[in-house]
Amino acid sequence: MTSNLAKTTSHAKRPYFVNLALQKDPVVTHPKPVVTFVDNVSPTHVNVEELPTTDTIVNELPPVDLHVSVISQPQMIVDELPLATPSIKLTSARSISATSSVLKNRSENITSKLATPLMKSTSGISPLVPLVGSAILLVIIGTAAVFLPPFLLSLQTHRDYSCSPGCWNGGSCLAQNVCSCLAGYEGDRCQTTICNQSCNYGVCAQPYTCTCQAGWSGTFCDQPICTPACVNGNCTLPNYCSCDVQYTGYLCLTPVCSPSCVHGFCTSPNNCTCNVGWNGTICDEPICSPSCVNGNCTYPNVCNCSTGWKDSTCSTPICSPDCMHDSNCTAPDTCVCSAGYNGSYCQYPICPLGCLHDGNCTAPSNCTCPSTYTGSICEDPVCRNSCSNNGNCTAPDNCTCATGWTGQICETPICTLPCLNGGTCISPDNCSCDTTNWDGLQCETPICSRNCTNGGKCGPTPHTCNCTVNWTDSVCSTPVCSNSCKNQGTCVSPNNCTCPIGYNGTVCEYPICVESCSNGGTCVAPNQCNCTSSWSGLSCLIPRCNPYCQNGGVCIAPSTCLCDNTAWNGSYCQLPICSASCQHGGTCIGPNICQCTTGYTGDLCQEPLCIPVNFHDETDYQGPNATCQNGGTCISPNTCLCTSLWNGTYCQTPICTLPCVNGGNCSSPDVCTCNTTQWNGTQCETPVCDPPCLNGGNCSSPGVCTCNTTQWNGTQCETPVCDPPCLNGGNCSSPGVCICNTTQWNGTQCETPVCDPACENNGNCTAPDVCACTPEWTGSDCNTSMYCNCKREF
Q: Is the whole-model pTM more than 0.70?
């Protein structure tokens, strides 16, 4: 290639630029081209005739900082070019701002061609060279560099240059030791491949092509691979799924129920399928069938009864203490009493007429009296020593005496005029004198103190009178009654008795009863009747019932009692009334109270009684095992018909349709009570692991977890498995996922060292912060060329 450009000696050593213009019409004439010289001072404009002839547009470049004058209409005069379209290599460089300041190098390679064949000049003016594209260009020769405005070219047509050790990957030697690289390569020797973006988990092995590490894919190796694919989640690391919020597990196949299913299985997100016997959104509500009447269902078919209730369905009330005397417990601590009893627990018998004088009602209509009273209602006082001489007991140990008597029991007679001279009052107003010396009503008359009277004559001894037939005593002053005066009557003249109060008759043989004795009674002492067996009382006016009328009956005539005809009858009210007959040989022992024969119970002895073989005493009939239990029916004495869920002689043994295993106890129908530290489940068939197995581990026996050994191990399956293992101190955080010390290692196994800053120019990071450089480069991060010292600012 030749040029018409003239050489000017004053600019022989200065670089010069040829201006080019893009034109659609190659034959249009233009003003004379302008060449701009650039140095470190200022641009210089020269005429085209002053330019020297040269093989390249850029000849020599001084190793100095350069400034560029940007020309809006760059042109280049080219003469005698071949008609074939030549290839022109352009190297992009640092761009120039509007203020001519130098910007950072973009390190971008561009290849452009001439748009049309060059046309030969016929008019003496060289044709224009039209170009495609535009760029800010950098031409590097040796250790110097220069910026070129748009479309300044380096035309390599004549001279061969030497680049040592050569331009790699198809690059061509543009100038001495200056390589022009093919698209996709860069570097002093075109040794570095170019990828548009960083190959995240791979290397740039071919231009614009990343080769990914195992487990990564995508144009830039930024898409992890999960095999098999994540079902309900996203693959965020190789073989590691980040699950949707409603799923978990290695492949996000396991649905999540929140809160967890308590007694069931999570079959879809937030949808539990409950075990038998459980209900509710999270299977935490036990089912009791039949339902708990007065309590809460705390476990399938297990009721926790409210206070005051018992049995399997909490339908039986509890009275504490128990209702007494065959009374019925109808609600908690509420008794319906049998006839004759009352009180909170029917503990008090009823005496309709009450018990007087602090007597206690100890049985229906039966008073237990204190020692000082007696009678059906304790109405009669008691005198421990009977009152004598017709005295009446009117208060405990207190006698009211008849006239003429006194003393605690009326045992002492009263003499209105006192007995004198040692005389003794032996009956009312009757003194017993010392008959040897005294006589008279008061023993006031001495014997023989005067002559014997009444024809008596003093006897053969002193103080003794020999009296006539009708007189006696020492002076014959005492008349003689041939029939002795009875009842303490006094013989006051011969055969003439003076009777004491209460007696009459010739010899005072007849007592006087002011109120005559009625009903065949006989007056046997003053105002004291001896009644017939059918009557009593002072005048025999009170009928007597023998035996006494019982159970509150009133004696209204001899041997005739008036009874409470609703509860008692019989001659003496001794027979209780049972409004309905006692059955099966039972005996009515109290009002509407039957005493049943062995083998029967109930108000009327209508129910057969099932009594355990060791219960023979009647007192045991109401014991805890006296009847068929758990809904069993006593169909005959000692024979129970049990419901479908119970068996045993008295239906006391529950039946579990599915047998309890592993030492479980059938505690109620179809309910096993397990050794909860080792087994649970409806049959105690499920082993217990406490703490529980994690991460899908299976509790295979008590306290033993069987893990998914490809992903988890440990006593609870709590330790994730990474196979192959994490290297270089990496921590296996979840199955197959290593958490690396990111400042030194990364990779799926933490096998890839980290160099910070990164190794440049295809250097290989072989250990943390250790780069193995290619032969052309050196330095801790392979950023220093082995062949030239280009200023890094360029």
A: no
